[in-house]
Amino acid sequence: MAELEKKWYVIRVAGGKEKKAKEYIESEIKALGLDNYVAQILIPTEKIYQVRNGKKVSKESIFFPGYVLIEAHLTGELQHIIRNVPHVSGFLTERQGKDKEPIPLRPSEVNRILGIVDEQLEQDEENITPFVIGEAVKITDGPFNGFDGTIEEIIQDKKKLKVMVKIFGRKTLLELNFVQVVKE
Q: 102 exposed, middle or buried (CB, 10 Å; 0-12, 13-18, 19+)?
């Protein structure tokens, strides 16, 4: 059998149910013997590092909540199967009308999304929880552990923050690492 041309599509799923929807789709495809029509199903995630109880903890975070990517040769039967899987509400981009034909992602979009995923794998600790100036934070590490403060400046290249903290009734500016604070 000749190799089928597979394209990337975006499936809308219930928020927080991305992994379950992926499992359901994979099990349906396997049960019906349609493995050769689907290359892969992907939930784009990123690693976020935080400090909890004085320890650095990493957690996976989905960066397109409510969406699952699928690389497949979509036939009418496969579309119908995917649309009727629990937690799936259809395809993101569909031509309107009687057929509701899904529109595949452009190669540039796919490369950008997959590039972000690959970057995440390469730069292990680079992606630390992003902060915003004026945001309230709690210090979780160091001599000022337990103090609350407000972010005054972000030094992105050094992964440091300048935080204004009230110590003994006086405001003091501290320079802290990203991992020494958590968002309030």
A: buried
